[in-house]
Amino acid sequence: MTKKIAALCALFFLLTPGIFAYIDPGTGSYLVQILIAALVSVSLGVKIFWKNIKFFFKKVFSKDKPDSQ
To answer: Residue 53 contacts by C-beta under 8 Å, 6 or more apart in sequence?
Structure first.
């Protein structure tokens, strides 16, 4: 049943006629604002949790590995 639905959806999207549309400058500006907000959010999250991130990587990479003798 799901294969039939997936095939119908694929046909629906493949057989649609050409669409004539444009992206106005406001849309581009909005996308740039979203990108900037995402970068600022990620950098703020890293700044807030920097000690936890540093401790995690220090714990992962400084484990003593058992000697294979």
So the answer is: 46
Q: Are 46 and 53 in contact (CB under 8 A)?
A: yes
pTM exceeds 0.85 for this model: no
Instruction: Report whether 12 contacts 6 (CB < 8 A).
Output: no
Does residue 54 lie in a domain region? yes
46 three-state secondary structure: helix
Query: Which pLDDT score, from 0 to 100, does residue 64 have?
Result: 64
C-alpha 44/C-alpha 52 separation (Å) is 14
Stretches in the chain below the pLDDT threshold 50: none
Q: How many domains, the chain?
A: 1
Query: Could you give the residue ranges of the DSSP H alpha helices within 15-49?
Result: 25-48
| Inter-helix orientation angle 50-61/25-48, to 10° | 60
